[in-house]
Input
Amino acid sequence: MLRGKVLVAQGGGPTAVINQSLVGVVQEARKYAQVEGIYGALHGVSGIVKEELVDLTQETTANLERVAATPSSALGSTRDKPDAAYCEKIYKVLKAHNVRYFFYIGGNDSSDTCRLVGNFAKAENYEMAAVHVPKTVDNDLMENDHVPGFPSAARFVGCAFSGINLDNKALPGVYVGVVMGRHAGFLTAAAALGRIQPDDGPHLIYLPERTFDMDRFLADVKRVYDQHKRCVIAASEGIHDAEGIPIVTRLMKNVEKDAHGNVQLSGTGALADLMCDQVKSKLGIKRVRGDTFGYLQRSFLGVVSDVDQREARESAQMAVKLGMQGFTGSVAIKRVGDYAVEYVATPIEKIAALTRVMPDEFINAEGNNVTPAFMNYIRPLVGTTLPDVSVLRAPKVAKILNK
Amino acid sequence: MLRGKVLVAQGGGPTAVINQSLVGVVQEARKYAQVEGIYGALHGVSGIVKEELVDLTQETTANLERVAATPSSALGSTRDKPDAAYCEKIYKVLKAHNVRYFFYIGGNDSSDTCRLVGNFAKAENYEMAAVHVPKTVDNDLMENDHVPGFPSAARFVGCAFSGINLDNKALPGVYVGVVMGRHAGFLTAAAALGRIQPDDGPHLIYLPERTFDMDRFLADVKRVYDQHKRCVIAASEGIHDAEGIPIVTRLMKNVEKDAHGNVQLSGTGALADLMCDQVKSKLGIKRVRGDTFGYLQRSFLGVVSDVDQREARESAQMAVKLGMQGFTGSVAIKRVGDYAVEYVATPIEKIAALTRVMPDEFINAEGNNVTPAFMNYIRPLVGTTLPDVSVLRAPKVAKILNK
Output
């Protein structure tokens, strides 16, 4: 076992449990005699190249546990995508500090960064384990049944739509809720957790896995509204037309892209407003409201799945166990029962820069809802203590006037 | 004591605890021998005039307790504002069903409705107690230290900004969160609950109690951004210019008004988008994001203050106790300690159709933040079990490259 330092970093969008993974790495690494120090890089790989490192060995376990329960990335994050020159800088810093175990917690872009850094070290004959620890609210990593961060965000979306449905029942109208998810509709589909009674919403769910057609959407809304006198809709921010162009980018003057070429979809209410305007003007329905869940859904304080917390922690612990044996790659979550999981060492090429989308069996034939198979998939993930909900069942009083 | 029926209804916007008040009325009324039945009107006063009543006497206590813990208005709600003709219809229904105790749970508009109905019954010499039970997320009822529904919504806003602040710290930029509140800024001010560390956001808070000036806003943002390299802003949907025109209505093509003449402010992302556009174009800051909290904040499942639940229940129980003695009026919450409350019988004329706003001592001199007096006011309300948050305190590692 090579003696050296551990370096851990967090990349991409924050989640409610990404600090569980961070603390999982730190606590697990403390157990190994070959570890001569545990460093954290501030703001992901950008902190490595700037040599902005902190000594996590100095943290108390009491504070680490408080940080683990805190949402968002405690080390800070980045959207940087390292190229060859960037990798050379990373290499110099890693070598200078004798880092022999590198753990990068992140999604598909971050796993690709991890892969590039690992390859670069290999090419330079610098012996180092580089292990990717999975996280993403989009749930779009290949090889994983689901990804830490997603279940807590799904719990948020489910609780939001449960409340929205009850609100919409009290003051009927049409409601559009726009949920995060660029290419994968898992998080939007989680809106279905809000349904308990037969007439509960969301009545319609639109996912990026299917082409969005405005006329079909309006026909769907009209049908539901005629039946229930109300309609609750969940739409992914990534819904797109037949050409694959996101509906929201058709509306924006200046399209903003990050270093990975991703168009900015969140942080604007434009899509919800457009869909509401269409319902108002084309269907003549008066009470139409739209919300964009935005940044609330990925780091809301106190809405977290205990299952997600446990799995985020455990997958990071497994990453350290593998890394300490010299493994380079990723750790994937496999479902092995109903409900149980295993953490599996996985070649990073099977994950890096790839995107998993919802399987067909989770989406109904009309492409405007989810199936029972999806409900069975998501229910065990979102936590063991979901709040209870009920409705009045009091019988109607006979009318005695105007007889 | 007059023998007759109890009728309970819910008006205005739903809250997370309005069903606690409903169940408080039902459970308390069951104890009185003079009560020959407990009816609920569907969708507030509109359900009374349509004689859409349900017999709550038939509900099990087990289900009533589940409904109490469920957000939104279980009986349904309405935005109707009764005029004289409307009141005559209400009177006919009340008399036909021998309703002698009328409880209307709602905000300032609903209390006015309650007052009008009470006056109408009086004018017709129909003996009936009409008691208003307070609720509103805006916290804008006169005579009340605070109003049931507000503390839970404030908890939501506080938890949201706590997470948003951590998210913004991980991926720095400018963030604008738009919060409900037409004339009163209490709910927006609750964003300050997200601050723990000295550099935590929201760094700026804009309330409808002060005139909003776009140039001053941009100067504020620039100052904070220059200092912290990031800026989190909480803005009320009701912020307005010097003429009193809401900033958001300047943007909308078709201004929508309800029966009370209130302009629609929620259910659109326009204000957040406008403020973000200004920051991007005028200050040249790239990463600028905006969210509109919309309907999530008033009926989110599972984010509720236990203090609020208790007070919503208890104020309704007190309303029944007073009503059974023939009292007509409202019940107000008075703070009598730090922290303790009393429920006080209050003439409805002191509440109906009036709006309370934040006292000057809660707002800083610059009009862009709240004071310690406000923090002391709000902290006991939002619950006894707020989630804990912490940050890493690991020391920086000395740079060893480029020496």
User: Anything to note?
Assistant: The radius of gyration of chain B is 23 Å. Chain B has a mean pLDDT of 93. Chain B has two domains: 4-136+303-350, 150-301+358-378. Chain B is about 35% helix and 15% strand.
